[in-house]
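dumping the sequnces here before i forget
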Amino acid sequence: MSTGAGTVTAAPTGAAPTGAAPTGAAPTGMAADELDEFRRATRAALSKAPRPRDVAEPSGQQESAAWEKGARKALGSLGAFGLLVDEANGGSAAGFVAMTVVLQEVGRAGVGRWFSSSAVAAARLLADEADTVLGHRLLPDLASGARVVTVAVTGPSGRYDLAGIAVTATTEGEGNGDGAVLTGVADFVPALADADCVVVAARLADGPVGGGPVGGGPVGGGGVGLFVVDRTDDCVVYGPGDRSGLNGLASLHLDGVRVPADRVLRRGLDDDRLAYLVAVGAVAVSAEMVGSAARVLELTVAYAGDRQQFGSPIGAFGTVQHHCVQMRTDVQTARAVTNRAAAAFDVAALDVDSLGAPNPDALWLASAAKAWTARATRRVVGRAHRVHGAIGFSAEHELPRHTAGQRDSWALWGDPRFHAGRIASGL
Amino acid sequence: MTSGSAVGGSTVGEPAVAGFTDDDEARLVAEVRAVLADPVAEAGGVGAAVVGEPGLRGMDHADLGYGFGGWSRSFLRQAGARGWISLLWPAGLGGAALPPRALWVLLHELAYGGAPAEALFYSLAVGQCLVDFATPELQRELLPKVAAGEVAFSEALSEPDAGSDLLSLRTFARRDGDHYVVNGQKVWTSNGAISDMAMVIVRTSTEGPRGRAISTLIIDLDAPGVTRRAIPDITGEPSYAELFFDDVVVPATSLLGTEGGGMAQVLAALEWDRFWARSVKAPFLRRELDDLVAFLKGASAWDDESVRLAVAELAVDIEVCDALFADALDRYGVPGADLSADAAAGKTFADALGLRFYEMAEDVLGLAGALSPARPDAPLGGRLWRNGLCAHGLRIAGGTPEVQESTVATRGLGLPRARS
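..and the predicted 3d for all of it:
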């Protein structure tokens, strides 16, 4: 079922709503007890990464880098990078529900801001390249965690529609193959500092490049193409500062960057494919936010039970209990709707052109998940700060890292207003 | 573009449940829809005052306050004839022994379809208590009638001086040979003026800890000594009642479980209500939302982006509510799983969502949103006005958010008991 730009078909889908639901999730999906075991293994592996005692102090940067490195190794050894990659390219194709487990643990640990950009967004974009030279070059390394790939879609406007793309691709000219020259700004790129390469979306000034079919669409007359820009290419990166949260959003300035033909993806973006990519990213970032908020709740309840004032633990006061109970509901609702969205993505087959055939239920649920989770987790960190008092504002505490991460994630892959708009157009 | 479906996209990716296949589910859904499509024929023409608006069909009374689509004896009998009341009961007690998912699907379809299902909820809740707690003798006597939809129940809990502090109740049942003699007063008993029997919480001892002096009796509300007085609710409907017990003689066999063990049944009945009666909030509101959208599209209001976004926000919240209860359903009935905190938190969330929905409807409809069913041109037949007012009552019924909160704090989060 095709949806137009920014349009999501409403959840109820007609005559056979219950019968239409495929069961058993992805063929290779994990059973509930396997998922629990996988969650435990992921948490244990991440906890073994050398966690710096003080991640925020400038002198802690080296320790922080070691933590990131350890987390990357841990996630690699779990096969987490390859959960959405096909088996021929070294992945397990275990699916989104399993991926959501990892993402929640990543969010909980507060480490690994590069993970979802590579293992989710880039992995899905590159899925169409699974049997091409480009795919064989990138996907096995992506699946093992040896190489981090990120995705740059939006520009300075921060919009997640085709009009938000602010990079233009021109052909290199006669005799120079089918490569392209990229000019413009890709902004709010997650994990740019950690990425070995970036899949950049660019408007095609001169029509299709790369010899393959690229997405149609009226933008620039020639559609939108996807290009792999390497770390070694001559472009400028701004940000993130050293106080970034989970996602470390940065901007990528391209001024005539040459991309050879063998780094042009066969398929570009059109409305449907972009909508699907945004939905995938939205679920991923929601899962990270859920994991982070669950950790914040845990910290807050523990603190409320320990901290004594007026002769009793502050957690015995109704007003403090109110904060904690509201936080619990916000965490549980966010987790429930995010898991439901992830399960909907597993219904789409992972091995065939899933970006091109959006499942309307998955798009609807992804928008619901991000719209709700962003707001719910914002409330969670707000209440956590009220319960923690001054200590929660201190850089040496764990809470501020989650607060900053929540803020970074708020608008990443679309803010609540954006996603509510998508749902509204499907009503 | 929305179209009629209760479970809808929400089941995508959810695995099949043992003992209840996808085919079983499809058959149940088709059956419910057939009944709702022609309720009067199905009931053999029993359905009395049919209110002329979508979602309210074949009821004996207009919606009695709680927004379940109405209380209907004829619908209760239909449900019984189709085996819907005993879906989860064990086969030995005449049930179909299906997993909770079956009840979930049934109630979702009924809620989205606007079935007058309120009486069914009470038969389900009390029926489950009978299955879980009653002596074999009482089960043999009552369960067949309950399963057939021949008994409409109330739950008589609150008293004039015992609301949130339920344990301070004073209605007393004195044991006298093979019967009890009951004296006292209950209040705010939902449907108490029109139902047949009530599960009544009474005090059976004046000694010991007050929690162990509570027992539960099944009392015939037509028995000598029972006086009932309907209380009009906020919309003017007789949703609930006062019950007076003057030397009412109740056979000792009508004791549910053991004498002094009544708290377990009260908690079980309340937990049932918090979970199941609010598990349908999402499909119920999804229907309200679909009908509201259809109305707004027929008016110019839908051209206003702020209106569309306001409605979309609630569409999100409804999906979230459904996901929250579906998540708890996975643990429902699992040995060792404690759902008390999740049921309490879910109830609070669902009832707050109900209020939020009708506030949104009022926002986007403006003055028209305040029109009651007294005006023939009221949007959705005035249903939004009525259900919006009822949302305030639902938040209190079954336990206030404030009381739920302390359950969640202590049992869900392990926080110390509250100090003021």
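The domain at 154-264 of chain B is CATH 2.40.110.10 (Butyryl-CoA Dehydrogenase, subunit A; domain 2).
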